[in-house]
TrEMBL record:
Ribosomal protein as UniProt keyword: no
Name of the protein in its database record: Spermidine synthase
Segments crossing the lipid bilayer: 24-43, 49-72, 79-99, 119-141, 153-173, 179-195, 202-227, 481-501, 513-533, 539-557, 569-585, 597-617, 629-649, 655-671
Taxonomic lineage of the native organism: Bacteria, Bacillati, Actinomycetota, Actinomycetes, Streptosporangiales
InterPro entries in the record: SAM-dependent_MTases_sf
UniProt entry keywords in alphabetical sequence: Membrane, Polyamine biosynthesis, Transmembrane, Transmembrane helix
Amino acid sequence: MTAQVQAASSDSTRDHWMAVRPRLILASAFMLFLELALIRWTGSNIVHLSYFTNFVLLGSFLGIGLGFLRVGRSRRQPYYSPVVLAVLVLVVLMFPVTVNRETEGVLYWTSLATTGPPAWVILPVIFVAAALVLMGPAELVGRCFPELPRLDAYRYDLIGSLSGIALFTALSFLSAPPVVWGVLAAVAYGVLLVPRPRVPYVLLVVVPSLLVVGLLLVETLTAGALWSPYYKVTYNELDRAGVRVMNIQVNGIPHQEAVPAAARLQWEAQYGLPYERAAAPPKDVLIVGAGSGTDVAIALSKGAQRVDAVEIDPKLRELGGTYHPDHPYSDPRVTTSITDGRAYLEQTDRKYDLILFALPDSLTLVSGASSLRLESYLFTEEAMRAAREHLKPGGAFSMYNYYRESWLVDRLASTMQNAFGHKPCVDVVSTAGQQAVITAGLTPDAQRCGPEWAGAAAGTPAPTGDDRPFLYLKDSTIPSLYIITLGLILIVSLLAVRVVAGPFARMRPYADLFLLGVGFLLLETKSVTGFALLFGTTWVVNAIVFAGVLVAVLAAVEVTRRFRTPPLPVMYGVLFAGLVLAWLVPNTWLLGLPVPVRVVAAVTVAFLPIFAANVVFAKRFSESADATTSFGANLLGAMVGGCLEYLALVVGYKGLLIVAAVLYLGAFALLPRRAVA
């Protein structure tokens, strides 16, 4: 089999105009760029993907693993990839899944009424299509591996992956629309897939690529969308009772309205209640989730002398600054910060008369690699304690939203009670959608309640904490819908591996590399969520963490290439020591450090086990008999790790370290004897 792989790769190299090293870098960059673009774009049109967290990521990992395993089994280039991408884009644009506009209230998990194909139809299509699309670039990467020494190939693969992340991050910063992503994909396909005799190149590569670009261009021009780093943002003006209202949707979900303060206070009582429940009129106000500016306008109308407005999405703030009828962001009393609300609380030294969490529903996830939403760390007990620490004497903390469930109102009220040490004021303004306002003064005297809150009803779940920040998950369990879905994914993956790669015996010698892939994905998830807590859930932090993980992996490869590293048993010892260190260091201690010191400590704690794990992988991979099969087995392990990430819903993110330790122990037990020696 190895001879077949080398022969096929030699044919590929001989027929391609580009040298193997730049081709490997380009193919790796394209592979990661295409994966990120698919996650981002499909999530903006298929609302289910906002709640089935890493669905596209799992399909991508499966496709990348299959692409490596396919090397040597076929000499044909992967012309199927641009064809499947064109079909996927066409299907998603023809059959989008959006929220039924007649549904009101906050959305979480799968509590939503949608229009378009049901989840059980569209999600399998997305999963299979993502796997097939990514299998093409992965096969192009895999064809380069046998042409280079093992670690050289892995090194250039990582350099290409970092380039792909950097390019996508730059486009996110520039708010580039998807048509730009489509153009770059078309160019990459055109460069990497060269014409062959008896192959209809124009029909299989040029036409599908142009179709993708054309479809994305039409979407960009007709939707009138703004592309923030988090959403596809669309907006339109409405007339409501004679008042002009700017209606804003994100990813097809009704999200915010830019309404004059006077009209909003007249229509919905909840917006004025925080100021009525505070014992003294607030002069210094912090608004988290300032959005398009209505809450800021209300604070100014209530006499605030200074308003600090925190909003995570720059495009929502931009729309508010341009279109809000009251122009609150132009007021000299208002200061805006584009950042995560929890990060702002952890880093500012200002104190306030009123801190307000104003409907901070992100409706999206931190990344494709976790179950964490952008606002998850705002509703933990630790977050409310942080808010309490930033109140002036006589100050108050308040939040309001459409909570849908009475137990959710009680859960948040209980969390506030634990954080402040006394009962908060709880005003259920409307039982339809559980529209409620929850307010707590720094002391009982700093709040003026209406009817006293009776306390949490029996069966109310305990407050959430930073380790399990899953506010909308009532029970400490994995929802059955996810278990069924993940089970079907694994079954389909097993069948796909058997069909594409042949007998499983081919991968049996690399079972330890498979487990290394499972463990690595869990470590990556722990790093992403940990840094989101320590530095914010912003897209910038997320991009830096993913790049940092790849830099740690590249450093491990370079150290293994250039220096004599300790034997594998010793490196496994370093790995387990890193896991123990990560377990022992509490997040509360890290959050108490100054930001520069926190960065150093967090990088050390998070990346030590990642570095050690990848020295283990690099040493083991460099000695493997079949580069593409061993690498493919590792990538398929990462896909299984993506499934196991859901265990955090039960054991918390810290518990993933124990799961990873068990997996690494299994990998060590499966080491071949010669590798141990």
